Amino acid sequence: MTPEQLQRIDAILHAAPVVPVLAIDDLDDAVPLARALVDAGLPVLEVTLRTPVALDAIRRMREVPGAIVGAGTVLTANDLAAVKAAGATFAISPGATDALYAAAKSSAIPFLPGIATASELMRGLEHGWTRFKFFPAEASGGVAALKGFAGPFPQVKFCPTGGIDAAKAPSYRALPNVLTVGGSWMVPGDALKAKDWARIGILARDAAG
Asked: How would DSSP label each residue in 139-202?
């Protein structure tokens, strides 16, 4: 991770208290969903590469004024190249391999690798990274684990994601080594299916507050 990449990922993660993690099945949902979230104060959007329309959704959402659109579930160097071509502002992975770290070092977009253990974190440090997604957060020890990481790894900051909801998010956000929190509770599946952008906006405002 170059100093420029570090500066850019920090700026992105500081731009919102919560990063919505989005799995978009209907491409027509991309723009109204992005607008609802951005208008509610959550401009940093992670579109996961879990659906066939994910890359097209990134292309559409990045045209929404104020939206900072990145890609999640980036698993390979090819994924990283694809999301860059789609116009993603950042890339996030659930874990990381040596090949993915190598590709990210030369990528034009900042990359946030996922870690769940101290050994994985140390591997990332060896590659020059000090910013990580802590995933799956709740299953991997949650707030207690992040407090434990703070002692031996004071230079490291996190975006915890996985199993976090509206009730749990404040405890994570209060930690000094947490920059922001990732989650999908503000976009419940039934609201997305019903295209209830007003309800999603209310939940997003509560998350941003």
From this structure: TTTHHHHHHHHHTT-TT-EEEEBSS--TTTHHHHHTSTTBS-EEE-TTS-HHHHHTT-HHHHHH
What's the whole-number average pLDDT of the chain? 97
pLDDT band at 3 (very low <50, low <70, confident <90, very high): confident
Q: Is the pTM of this model over 0.90?
A: yes
**46 carries an active-site annotation:** yes
d(CA 128, CA 107): 14
| Active-site entry in 4, 120, 133, 193 | 133
**Residue 157's beta-bridge partner residues?**
131
Query: Can you spell out the DSSP letters for 28-62?
Result: GGHHHHHHHHHHTT--EEEEETTSTTHHHHHHHHT
Do the strands 181-183 and 68-72 form a parallel or antiparallel pair, or are they unpaired?
Answer: unpaired
pLDDT tens string 169-203: 999 999 999 999 999 999 999 999 999 999 999 99
Indicate the residue type of 50: R
133 is catalytic: yes
∠ CA 20-189-65 to the nearest 5 degrees? 40
CATH number of 3-208: 3.20.20.70
Mind listing the pLDDT tens digit for each residue in 33-66? 999 999 999 999 999 999 999 999 999 999 999 9
Tokens 């879990």 — which residue? 50
Give the other-Cβ count within 10 Å of 154's Cβ: 10
